[in-house]
Design goal:
CATH topology: Glucose Oxidase, domain 1
Structural class: alpha/beta
Number of domains: 1
Order of helices and strands: HHEEHEHEHEEEEEEHH
Number of strands: 10
Mean pLDDT: 93
Radius of gyration: 19 Å
Helix content: 25-40%
CATH architecture: 3-Layer(bba) Sandwich
CATH superfamily: Ribonuclease E inhibitor RraA/RraA-like
Strand content: 15-25%
Length: 216
């Protein structure tokens, strides 16, 4: 079952558990090559989003696919927009307002955005490759809602997107539950480790790396 088809309560539970863990812990827990290009980063510090993906592809310098997606995207989704890494202002304050009205909870785009101050003021989570004042045309829409490859990571509607200050991951819907459960176990172990470190233990001891003391 994809997150998109889950009940609102289930989706909210996934998002809350993902927020508590963060993208780095969930990446390690997944055991999958699910990390997006690290150049795709938050445009304002502290942004966080977790939810089902809605993928689309824009032609370079053309944002028509985004406008079409606004009429099709399920509420609660994260837009994942491929642009072929072409940085232009595909997204700004107008689309942010439209997204909020459509129930979109965040944007991940391998291109650029603009109106950054306005987006930050609205606290709308945006993760982008860059910022650009250059506008876009509206002439083509290669793909809206269909599975695609985003910076080398497969993404389909309903996959779990988690994005924060550390970066962006996209976990297949079939692996989302397992990944969060493993992440919670990992986080619990790390909490114990940090308590032991605070009491004077060393990372070499706790990680079984004491043999390296003689190699330094």
């Amino acid at each position: 079952m994809s997150l998109a088809s889950a009940s609102p309560a289930s989706t909210a539970d996934f998002a809350a558990r993902a927020r508590a863990l963060g993208s780095s812990t969930l990446y390690e827990a997944s055991g999958l090559p699910c990390a997006v290009d690290p150049l795709v980063r938050t445009i304002w510090s502290g942004a966080f989003v977790a939810g089902p993906a809605y993928p689309l592809v824009c032609s370079p310098g053309d944002n028509l696919a985004i406008h079409i997606a606004m009429e099709r995207v399920p509420r609660g989704s994260v837009l994942v927009v491929g642009t072929g890494n072409f940085v232009a202002g595909y997204w700004g304050e107008v689309l942010t307002v439209a997204a909020e009205a459509a129930g979109v909870v965040g944007l991940v785009i391998d291109g650029g955005v603009r109106d950054v101050a306005a987006i930050a003021a609205r606290r709308f989570p945006v993760f982008a490759r860059g910022i650009s004042v250059r506008g876009t045309v509206k002439a083509s829409a290669p793909s809206v809602g269909a599975p695609t490859i985003f910076t080398g990571v497969p993404v389909a509607e309903g996959d779990l997107v988690v994005a924060d200050d550390d970066g962006v991951i996209i976990v297949p819907a079939t692996e989302a539950g397992r990944t969060i459960a493993v992440g919670e176990v990992r986080a619990a172990k790390e909490a114990i480790m940090m308590q032991q470190l605070a009491q004077g233990a060393s990372t070499l001891e706790l990680m079984g790396l004491t043999e390296w003391r003689t190699h330094a």
